[in-house]
Amino acid sequence: MNEIISSSQNDKIKYLNKLYRSRTRRKEGVFVLEGKRLIEAASAGGADFERVFLSPAFFKADKNKDLIDKLQNRVSLDLVSEELLKETAATVNPQGIIAIVKEPNYSSEKFFKTADKILLLDRIQDPGNMGTMIRTAAAAGFEAVIALKGSVDIYNQKVIRASMGGIFAIPIWQKVSKNEFKKDLKDRAADFELLAADIKAEKYHFEHQYQQKLILMIGNEANGLAEDLLNIADMKVKIPLKGEMESLNAAIAAAVISFEILAQQLK
Amino acid sequence: MNEIISSSQNDKIKYLNKLYRSRTRRKEGVFVLEGKRLIEAASAGGADFERVFLSPAFFKADKNKDLIDKLQNRVSLDLVSEELLKETAATVNPQGIIAIVKEPNYSSEKFFKTADKILLLDRIQDPGNMGTMIRTAAAAGFEAVIALKGSVDIYNQKVIRASMGGIFAIPIWQKVSKNEFKKDLKDRAADFELLAADIKAEKYHFEHQYQQKLILMIGNEANGLAEDLLNIADMKVKIPLKGEMESLNAAIAAAVISFEILAQQLK
């Protein structure tokens, strides 16, 4: 290990700083993780680390030895002063560790072969919703997520944090065009049941018997699914609404349907 | 209607400004609403308005006539310049209207008599979660919410916005002490089934047959329900978790159980 970096003019720190801008992040094909918990989740999920920055205190602490041992086998570690680490991070307290991780690449071929239950997200805007949806999908036994173009970047810091490690638990294929998805659906996923959450559906979500292989489509917070996606769905389901409420939060709607599907499979 | 207020030194505007501080808000027993949609929801829910500020453009617009007619019968309206209204508001765009509403008062006696399904929230911290829980509870047919002391103020601007009008759809009794709740439970709600969402429960949420009259208890985001509340529960239920995820977001957990209860009643 080299000396402790303490200057914001250090080239590695300048590079790290740039990655907080979403355009640079995307261009470089990497994303930033802050804090022990997320970096542990990334390590457990087999993430491809590019670089890890940590404070001398974090490096020395006994409780971090396991994680550091695992990381040292895979990536070069850089010591950074506590102050500079805090100054650089997006969170108030990065807890002594920041990592740069390479964005995983998914091919659609592999994607539909390895997953039985897939969540498709159409133009989800709110980072908190996106992160919660990923967390919930993983918890409900979904094995993959497809985020269509027009959805918020899943490597946005708020999405990562709200996902509570979920982005490392299941593969997520993002920035997929609708045409690409439709073509794949025909070529590779013809045996999947295509489900749409639709406030105007006739059936309640608990009245339908779900197939083993399925794709659940959830649409934009304000406008729901795009018309052409609704049109190709094999089945549309709605959630009953009481108390004169007009709608549910999109992440809540996704969760209610996802866990009904899981419950049917466990019953 | 008097002239248009355009100075931030106007006494009514100074009072309004102070209400954005939560201590003053609580002391005065009122809260602030911004935007047409929320104020319509408040009006429909029978809210007790103290004062309404609106821009000359909002006042003149044909599409706002219905709302203004309703408000004029109940409260004094003040015209405020567009600029001053924007400067005062917490949202980027208050859409021409801000209202001060009196906090409703609930007696526990009435509370348990008029509701069959009640959601109890124990130390919910995140305003977005709190608002979403209220919105979801109303949508799932819950008829009341009790927020125990230590939960975020339901009249916090972020809670109000996330609730999407839900805070006007059902009565919410907040800042209730645990002892007060336990006493009421004995004295007034002995015939309610007391349910706890508990990650360590033995039964899955879909394995239990819920009673008609029930109180569903949901705990703090990080730590769940307090031990003593778990101990008095008639039944504990958990949600199955896959993908090595350790937990769900608290609002998601509340939604999944609430809609299972509703589904059982509709089946």
UniProtKB/TrEMBL annotation, chains A, B:
GO terms for biological process: methylation; RNA processing. Residues 32-107 form the RNA 2-O ribose methyltransferase substrate binding domain. SUPFAM superfamilies: alpha/beta knot, L30e-like. Pfam families: MRM3-like_sub_bind (PF22435), SpoU_methylase (PF00588). GO terms for molecular function: RNA binding; RNA methyltransferase activity. CDD domains: SpoU-like_rRNA-MTase. Keywords: Methyltransferase, Transferase. SMART domains: SpoU_sub_bind. InterPro entries: Alpha/beta_knot_MTases, MRM3-like_sub_bind, Ribosomal_eL30-like_sf, rRNA_Methyltransferase, SpoU_MeTrfase, SpoU_subst-bd, tRNA_m1G_MTases_N. GO terms for cellular component: cytoplasm. Belongs to the class IV-like SAM-binding methyltransferase superfamily. RNA methyltransferase TrmH family. This is tRNA/rRNA methyltransferase (SpoU).
